[in-house]
Amino acid sequence: MTNRNRKAVVNQKDKSNHALRYRGSSTTPQDDEDDSDGEKRIWGLSVRLIILSACFVSGFGFIMLYFNAASEMKNVTETNYAELVNSEFNLQNYSFATDRVNIRDNASLQEFTKYFDCQLPVLIRGVVNEWPSMKWNRDFFKSHYGNQKVPVVSVEGAMINAEVKTMTIEEFSQVVPDGKPSRWHYVQDELFINRHDKLKADIGEAIYFKENFFKLFPEEIRPWDAMLLWGSAHSRSHLHIDPYNWTGTNAVLHGRKRWKLFPPGQDNKFYITPNQMCGFPLNCYKYNSPIDSFNIDDEKYPLFRNVNYIEIEQNAGELLIIPPGWFHQVYNPVETIAISSQIMNSKNYNIILKEIIAANKLISDAFPDDIESYSPKEKVLFILALLPDEVIQRGRMITDQIIQQFYGNQ
């Protein structure tokens, strides 16, 4: 196994009037928790070491290392924690500046790959504003899809009170203008765009998405692409890392978003419940925090007071790309429509395969001796071939259930 140990000096010049904020004095979390929580702290940091290492370790040796050294992360001890820190996957490998989001106009693929992919968030202009989907707004959806149903997250009071309801676009268009801090609504629909070919055709291309191994997945378990996000003022997401630890993308078509992005290495401050599952057709672990970073309960979550984060506003026509390992939460200050998607490529495929292997309990003994010679694409296909038939059948069943639950026979 070789260590790429990629280091980059990134131009940190702010090229916009976006509001940027950095909380705290360092990207390294302070050990301010009680020593009795040491095992929990080790668990969180060790998971982050595993995740970050895949961006820097070449070949399939990372997957084998995952099996041999860290498949039972809940049993990490002081001894093997020290071994992890001193091994090739070391948090120091994550040496990039993380005090702001870099902003680029029409970044080239070479620049994106070298400086940002699997490393740093980047806001890219000059791409989304050319997409036909920029015409999407409330009147557009109301006139073309008014009788179509969508799942809506509705909140009265705190986010803990969120409920998922089914509304027609017509019904949603009546409530979405009235968002308030204590009452808001948010369409977060994984399937709506994919079920309407005309909407799918309105989404333009971006060179950063060209290599995407998710296209190799069987349809029954392929992560749903092009999620429709349409929220009232004051709506927001949960604080989370994306499923499978993929590279996330978000394109704003109407309105604007305010993001908080949290550099890796702070997991112990997010109060994650372990072993949550995502419930997707192909199962994966879920990394959601109960904390609302836009309305923080300091008494309930005291460790969160010392987290470091970057804050940036994203306007219509701009594309934000978030690498693996970054917790993030988004807030919509005004009614906003956006599309989110995901990337699996040569830089992050090891991370995603690790998640698939762990969540679906695949056996490492099935790996051939010459797997190091496989290309990234061949390795992805190999892991997919290990999935038993019941996993594919489960994926089909889950998709059918969701369609029936939220859309009925429409």
The biggest beta sheet, please?
Answer: 9 strands, mixed
Radius of gyration: 21 Å
Q: Please state the average pLDDT score.
A: 80
The stretches of 5 or more residues where confidence is low (pLDDT under 50) are: 1-50, 58-95
Structural notes for this entry:
- Residues 1-50 and 58-95 have low confidence and may be disordered.
- Helices cover 26% and strands 20% of the residues.
- The strands form three sheets. Strands 2-3-14-10-16-7-6-4-5 form a nine-stranded mixed beta sheet. The protein has a five-stranded antiparallel beta sheet with strand order 1-13-11-15-8, with no helix packed on it. The protein has a two-stranded antiparallel ribbon with strand order 9-12.
- The protein has helices at 38-53, 61-70, 78-86, 109-116, 138-145, 169-175, 197-202, 349-359, 376-386, 389-407; strands spanning 21-22, 102-105, 122-125, 149-156, 163-168, 183-189, 227-231, 235-236, 239-241, 247-254, 256-262, 287-289, 310-315, 319-322, 327-332, 336-343.
- The protein has a domain at 102-348 and 402-407: Cupin (Jelly Rolls, Sandwich), CATH 2.60.120.650.
